[in-house]
Amino acid sequence: MVELLFLVGVAVAIFVGFNVGGSNTGVAFGPAVGSQTISKVGAAALMSICALVGGWTVGRNVINTMGGRIVPSRFFTLEASIAVLFFIGLALFLSNIVGVPASTSMTGVGTIAGLGLATDALNWGVMRQIISWWLVSPVIAFWVSAIIGRYWYPTLLDWFAITQSEGALVHMDRSGWIVRPALGPNTTLREFIGTLLVIAVACYTAFSAGASNMANAIAPLVGSGAIDMNSGILLTGSAIAVGAFTIAQRTIDTMGNELTDMPLLAALIVAVVSSTLITILSELGIPASIVIVSTMSIVGLGWGRATRVQEHTNRSQMIEEGPPGISGGALAVDSADTPTIDTATNTDTNQSSNSDANTNSYPDVDALYEPWTTARVIAMQNVVPGIATVSAYLLFKFVPLFQ
Predict the structure, then answer these.
(1) Euclidean distance between CA atoms 10 and 4, whole angstroms
(2) Phi then psi dihedrals of residue 153, to 5 deg
(3) CA-to-CA distance for 210 and 196, rounded, in angstroms?
(4) For the range 278-283, what are the long-range contacts, defined as Cβ-Cβ under 8 Å and sequence gap of 24 or more?
């Protein structure tokens, strides 16, 4: 019976890891694949490696938190571990049904908290620390991204605008005695460095996803002692790789196509901000939601851009009314502002903040920031973990198998 339960637990852990690989590969490499910077196979390979490295290094702290700090590890029986993993898998399923990505980390913590409440074993000090960071990290993501969108986006657009040339990015130069790699016939140094930057950011996101989400698949089993941490990380890393090479092929297409409505630069800013926060929290042993942090980063960037556009509108009205000391040329410096959410065009690569082609044309502020849609997404992302917490409490409190 114990062997059967162990196999069930391993199977559920593999299922969770498989889904983590499928969903997070699209998040990490969607912009890179959508911009034709890397192939889907290359993205899957890098996702597999980077997620494993993230789980093997920083991710251990999150595994320890979820596997023994929220609730003492002695309460993680095989039955309880399987139940926790079941709720995490259920969260992934529900998120796919409603079309809103749920936080597996928050669901996992909520389920473990339900176990702790049912057994009077919940470590309230650790829970307060986790919840505090859950509240603070989205706010940090919002304001950092808002500041970037409000003040620095045009400058970054000038620095990192990439024009993709035809032909291979690099080729093997055989003109000399030694065969060596060289830039392609039409490749500029700016294009080469920009391409490497896009791939590096994608790998960084994959690393942070592995560091944060590896625990969701194996922390209960590690806490119960059914499997050691190293074996669990390798098992989950393998499951993530399978998901990256299979179901992620569709999610990469979806994310890549969707993100063409968001300029590549904006996608990279969101990835860097959210991945940095998640990596820092993982180092602190805090299970956090990259979904919610990324969502608030996107909203912050859009809000920052929207306030910039609103200011331009006000300034345009002032110019039309003819206030003293202001001329139409004052707007030219910001004329290439482009939306970062929903209505963005793929003109990042050929526009500059010094162009004056559309001096009097600005995007709709409402298109950059949709508060009602944002509220619905964030609400759903918190409702699913709440349901998991209550359901886990009722299960562990009243079902005889878990008492």
Answers:
(1) 10
(2) -60, -45
(3) 21
(4) 278/208, 278/209, 278/211, 278/212, 279/54, 279/58, 279/207, 279/208, 279/211, 281/133, 281/137, 281/212, 282/54, 282/58, 282/59, 282/61, 282/62, 282/208, 282/211, 282/212, 283/58, 283/61
Q: How many residues does the chain have?
A: 403
Owning domain of residue 365 = 2-402
**320: pLDDT confidence band, cut at 50, 70 and 90?**
low
Cα separation values, 116 from 12, 143, 242, 272, 340, Å: 21, 34, 33, 35, 42
Which string of b and e fits 68-83 if b means at least 16 CB within 10 Å?
A: bbbbeeebbbbbbbbb
CB 340 within 8 A of CB 303: no
pTM to 2 decimal places: 0.79
More confident residue, 336 or 198: 198
Question: Dihedrals φ, ψ of 144, to 5°?
Answer: -60, -45
Count the domains in the chain.
1
Q: What Rg value do the Cα atoms of the chain yield, rounded? A: 24
